[in-house]
Design a protein that fits this description.
160 residues; minor pseudopilin epsh fold; four-stranded antiparallel β-sheet; 2 helices
Length: 160
């Protein structure tokens, strides 16, 4: 007489229901929910870390301010006038030499950024001072002002 042990019986049950034998097929609902939750948190972190139009505009204004300050310092150090020429596509720096403006460097506005006034020239004399000017940068319904004072100081402010 052959006896089948309870451990070898494929119909073995525990108190929660039938015991599954062999490799599991697929994933449980809990495992899928955990994976979806992790993916959701990761995608939220990516979306929140992406800068919006206001943040990009502020970065552009800060970058312009740093380059304008460098132009002012160049005028003082070289004892020559340095000009900042603006247009709708970007801005360029020029140094006065032999009675003419010689180009130094040019930078493009980021796509979607507009500037008012569209065309302007701001000149820093060898002492680093300039005529007062106000630039208004706009992007995606946001605007920010860059003020250049007569003493040459440059400030970024919210547009009023």
């Amino acid at each position: 007489m052959t006896r089948i042990s309870a451990a070898a019986d494929p119909r073995q049950r525990n108190r929660f229901g039938p015991v599954r034998r062999g490799a599991q097929q697929g994933f449980t609902l809990v495992e899928l929910l955990v994976v979806l939750t992790i993916l959701g948190l990761m995608s939220a972190a990516v979306v929140l870390s992406m800068p919006g139009d206001a943040a990009e505009l502020r970065q552009e204004a800060d970058s312009f301010t740093l380059w304008a300050t460098a132009a002012q310092e160049q005028a003082i150090l070289a004892s020559r006038a340095v000009s900042l020429r603006l247009d709708g596509s970007g801005y360029a720096f020029e140094r006065r030499s032999a009675g003419q403006w010689q180009p130094l460097a040019a930078y493009q506005w980021r796509q979607g950024t507009s500037v008012q006034p569209v065309s302007a020239r701001i000149t820093f004399d060898p002492a680093g001072v300039s005529e007062p000017a106000r630039l208004l940068l706009e992007r995606g319904g946001n605007s920010i002002a860059v003020d250049i004072a007569g003493d040459g100081s440059i400030h970024v402010r919210p547009a009023a």
